[in-house]
Specification:
- By secondary structure, the protein is an alpha+beta fold.
- The protein is 35% helix and 10% strand.
- Strands 4-3-2-1-5 form a five-stranded antiparallel beta sheet, with helices on one face.
- The termini are far apart.
Length: 238
């Protein structure tokens, strides 16, 4: 009787030990999988950012500027499109790139963020479907409310950035999708990760300015400029 009880207790102990080891393995594996997923998402975001960069410079050669309110008129005349090509969001201006070159896909303007969790449907047959809310993950930086930048500007100026925090146009960025990093495309066509500050979710830019969107006499954004960050259009009910 005692031997049987001893064997039973031994079996139960081994079963408990196996369960503990399994739980420990899952506890170690899950963070690693999440980390790898975020690294993969960041690589995809960088890849698509370079695609946008190539489109911007091709667009600049053709229209003399990056997309803005004036080029929106020129693109409509050249393509006959009925899509919305300017407005409040980065989606609006990116549509100029979408329709002005052959072979461009909606996916090029997408990266995984809290507000753009799934890839676009590649249906841009109507104004309502083309780069719809939630299908764009990148913010677009203009020289002013109506004027875009150009390739002849200060090389270190940012022109595209992701991921904006809650898709707000206030130069704050979400540390969650890419392990505390934001990804920035500059006018020299370099695409680099930058560490997001924890306390205010902004990007440090170094002397003489404190953050990416600030101006100073010797900074990429010189005093008197009125740079504007166009965040992506958020999904309804976010």
């Amino acid at each position: 009787m005692n031997n049987a009880l001893h064997r039973l207790n031994g079996f139960a102990f081994k079963k408990l030990l196996v369960m503990i080891l399994l739980i420990a393995a899952v506890a170690v594996a899950v963070p690693m999988v999440v980390k790898q997923k975020k690294a993969s998402d960041r690589t995809k975001a960088l890849s698509n950012l370079k695609q946008i960069g190539a489109m911007l410079f091709e667009f600049d050669n053709k229209y003399g500027n990056f997309p803005d309110d004036e080029t929106a008129v020129d693109v409509k005349k050249a393509t006959g499109t009925d899509l919305v090509l300017s407005g409040t969001f980065s989606n609006d201006y990116f549509r100029q790139l979408l329709v002005s070159s052959a072979g461009v896909r909606e996916e090029y303007f997408w990266c995984r963020t809290a507000q753009s969790p799934t890839k676009p449907d590649e249906d841009f047959s109507t104004p309502e479907k083309a780069l719809a809310a939630g299908e764009v993950g990148y913010s677009y930086i203009m020289a002013s409310q109506t004027q875009g930048q150009s390739s002849s500007g200060e090389p270190s100026r940012p022109v595209i950035v992701t991921p904006s925090y809650n898709f707000e146009p206030d130069w704050t960025f979400d540390p969650e999708p890419y392990q505390g990093m934001a990804i920035v495309l500059r006018l020299d066509n370099s695409a680099t990760p930058m560490q997001i500050r924890e306390h205010d979710k902004k990007l440090p830019a170094g002397p003489p300015i404190k953050t990416l969107g600030e101006s100073a006499d010797s900074a990429p954004w010189t005093t008197g400029m009125s740079q504007v960050l166009r965040a992506p259009q958020p999904r309804a009910g976010r």
